Amino acid sequence: MAQSSGEDAVVLQAMLRQLFQSVKEKITGAPSLECAEEILVHLEETDENFHNYEFVKYLRQHICNTLGSMIEEEMEKWTSDQNQAEESGYDTVVQHVTKRTQESKEYKEMMHSLKNIMMVVVESMINKFEEDEIRNQERQKKIQKEKSNNSYCTDNCSDSDSSFNQSYKFCQGKLQLILDQLDPGQPKEVRYEALQTLCSAPPSDVLNCENWTTLCEKLTMSLSDPDPVFSDRILKFYAQTFTLSPLHMTKEIYTSLAKYLKLYFLSRENHIPTLSTGIDISNPNVICLLKKVRLLNEYQKEAPSFWIRHPEKYMEEIVENTLSLLSVKHDQSHLVSQKNLDPIYFFALVDTKAVWFKKWMHAYYSRTAVLRLLEKKYKSLITTAVQQCFQYFDLCEAMKVNEILSHSKHCGNKQKTFFYSGQELQYIYFIHSLCLLGRLLIYTQGRRLFPIKLKSRKDLVSLTDLLVLFTQLIYYSPSCPKMTSAAHLDNYSPASMVTEVLQILCDQKECAVECLYNNTVIEALLQPIHNLMKETKAAPNCSEAALIHIADILARIASVEEGLTLLLYGENMNSSEEKSPTGAHIIAQFSKKLLDEDISIFSGSEMLPVVKGAFISVCRQIYGTCEGLQVLIPYSLHESIAKAWKKTSLLSERIPTPVKGSDSVSSISQESQNIMAWEENLLDDLLNFAATPKGLLFLQRTGAINECVTFMFNRYAKKLQISRHKKFGYGVLVTQVASTAAGAIALQSSGFINALITELWANLECGRDDVRVTHPRSTPVDPIDRSCQKSFLGLVNLLPYPAVYELVGNQDLPNKAEYSLREVPTCVLDILDRLIILNSEAKIRSLFNYEQSHIFGLRLLSVLCCDLDTLLLLEAQYQVSEMLLNAQEENILETSESHRHFIIDGLSVERNHVLVRINFIGGPMERILPPRVLEKGDDPYPWPMFSSYPLPTCYLSEVTRNADLKQDNDLGKLLLHFKMSDKQTEWIENCRRQFCKMMKAKPDIISGSALLELLEKFVLHLSESPSECYFPSVEYTATDANVKNESLSSVQQLGIKMTVRYGKFLNLLKDSAENDLTLVLKHCERFLKQQQAPIKSSLLCLQGSYAGHDWFVSSLFMIMLGDKEKTLRFLQQFSRLLISAFLWLPRLHISRYLPTDTIESGIHPVYFCSTHYIEMLLKVEVPLVFSAFHMSGFAPSQICLLWITQCFWNYLDWIEICHYIATCVFLGPDYQVYICIAIFKHLQQDILQHTQTQDLQVFLKEEALHGFRVSDYFEYMEILEQNYRPVVLRDMQNVRVQNT
Fold it and tell me: Which residue stretches does the UniProt record annotate as biased composition, category Basic and acidic residues (predicted)?
């Protein structure tokens, strides 16, 4: 190449020209020179003809001639070296040879020679390009002279060569020529031609020229040209630059345009409209100005999407120029109406909702710069925005509604005229200011700009002042006409705009706490409600639409914990000084008045149902929580809502069926839709009472639980959200409802249980219908496949004992001789029959996936049987243990007459676990449950299996049983107190203090005979104190002979056997204890029957005696060491105390001491009182655990009801059960609540872990409370007592009062 002749250069020129001609379209379409270079660099990847170009062929041949031999030598050398070592891949060879070649001397010499020859060739081509360009310009001038005067508006067309030349290179000389031609002294045609040339050139080339700064100044000067076409051409160039150039180039254009506009507004020579004259947007000058503002605004909205990729200084320069322009203010000495409009008015016209500011504030990168500049240099921009809001509010107060109604109408009107009056401009600027301030308040640094000093006000304007102003704007300012707000996508009515801003602030927790959650703002929101309830003169100014907006804001506030606390208790929740009712009370009173139609102002209004619904929605956020429901109880909202629902449902039944062709069809249809929507809304409101235990009691009292549950199921089936402000789904509601007998019946009748079981069967047995047979299902790895996990947890939630008893109580299994493969279970009994109690070949053959399905059933059985009442029911009705033992017997492999081995598989291991669980009773230290997984090694399952009784004793741990410790001195002192004859009250308190002291210091001595004596004497003294007796004394004279022939339920009989087994294991009971316990339970039934009220109910649990086993009496019998007489005497004394209502559950079964509607609900006070307060305190004391329950779709009340009902059997060791009972007896029934809170605190880490693994329900029901001791949490429970006893104990004492 070094010796190439001139002919070679000519040949190369021809090759290059051919290459460029072939890729001309790609290059000319490139937005910049850099892009054109990228296209050429990657041409081999994008052009299929790349290797056919003569220039490429030439280069390949030249490389082959120069470097070919060296490359071959390197490859041979590398190959021989690698043969001696490990085998290498092709890529490694190429990399090595390429590297060696590029480092060689021959390669460097070749590149040098190529560079020299190509420089000669390219220089020659450029010279020719410039000559062609000059000739083309001369030709164009001749053509233009022949055209008419308007021909300059047409686009310039050039041939292919000149087009290519222009796009490929824009020379410095040409730019200087354009500068000269743009001079204002030049003829119009020359200036247009120069501008046309500039627009057709690549913007990157123009901006990279040395004369760019001078050109920019020329263009800025030319923007003031009176000719609109010329100005438009410049704006077109600016727009093209914004679109095609990188930020560091467009920043120059933006800055020049912003500075021009700033000078334009500051100049006295320009005719800028005033407020009094308004803006006529058909005026050419205004059109031109708006185009410039619009172009700037469009760039403002686009810039944030890419400026983070560039140095911060570029972004800061754009921000500062923008804020500088928007801060321009004209001379304030004139009247407001006569002063020229500031730039901000024009920006508000083109971007009313300040979208540019929203985008700039979105990212931290730009937000920091904006806030810093606002704070240091341009705070006046915020000040004027606040001032504008106050001015508009003053206008609303001063003028009548009909005079300013046009403000909101014009902004939403599609057929807008071409003139904006001064008032309209003020309103548009107000909307812009409102949106800007709303976005500013979201961020901490933005809120720090406050307080702000306004000239028109003496005091500083704080954040609270601004939020109060926003709130007042909702009900003082006019709204759009009714029924139009929904039709317009952009509703610019003041109330809608302010509500939108407040909604955004509510959704930002930190911002809401700082701005909204204070008494002043809440009072401002509630002011119109105050006026309406008092029916003052100010009331008519508040429209229905404004009330709906206010309710929406209040609902958002109530949906957050901090906001709800503010509404319930005010800011000074611990202060007694606050006498005025809090927000929750006012909202409840107003909602009740609306429901009872006790407000005359809105009578007959079409919007009244919407207003009602909006405010009940606020109440729903409040009464959907335990603490909120407690506050709203006095208003009996459930009764008012139920009354309104019944009235509405009657109306919906009376709507006539539309007749085809009738004129009234549309009106009737609309009316029916409105009534049906209102009916559903009311049902939804009632349903949300079920979110808490006490709320569920209120719901059942209304008699609408069946309709509410059906409504819930319909929404669930349609996969609709449970509620707008609810974070989680239907799980908690379903769990609460299923915890009661009536709720379980409602779930069954609604179809909910049917749907759940059908879905389960589809996942477990059938698979999806839409999956082709060619894609078989994968074999499950887990015992319960992931596809069935949700259904499994759903069944666990649905089947606590009250639900099980109602759904399967006194029902026989189908036990069919044959089951069709298409026969799908539809109820709980079918699940028991098909998946759990597989006692026939027909059942086994009916399952496609026998092992997987049966393991699912056994896992479900294991969870169900954790509830001992459910276990006894299933054992009594279906002999579950016998079925499992028979199945184990069939799983034995007989190797010889004397050797029998169990086949160890998934089913036998699972059955063994269930058998041990249901036959052995004991706490975490008293029994050992075999694992469900195999171990590594020679003996994968060392636990003995069995197929008959007695069970292996290895599953019972060797704990110290009934080891009576010698009486401690402290215990002697405590017993001595029972002999003292102090004043009754002082004596009781003294005993309680001594008990607490012992529980903290030496809890283990409170057991055995010492505990027996303590309880006996303490309860005796309490029962003799009138102030301590809650229930009246009942005379009971029956003897053993009187009750001997009475029968106990099969559940009670099995419970007796279980109790005696447990008592004998603990060395507390003897063999004869079974008869004595039977007599005790018979006496108890007769004793309690004397205090029961006659009742007729369809609920199975209310038909006769208590449905479950009496676990408290069984526990007490064991504490009394099997002494029948002592147990009965104790129970008669104990039954007079309040604690008996909460420890001894059968005590209040259909009791005449309860209100009739409470009896008919079938809900025990332990559920609607104890577990209600457990949930309430849990939310405050252990909030993470409370959140975990909601995320898991499980309610704390269900597991606590289980623990309390069976006196923590299987969950605590015996000594801890004794301490639980003794603590509640000595210290009061509210300690039942505190102990459960202490348990949840103890389990916090485990609960959080199992929430993540999505098996919280199973963990809480199956696992014992490892490591929990009542005494360890005594100090914590004393703190809970100090904080909550006044509320909790008062409510427990009110279980007999009608208005529970």
Answer: 135-148
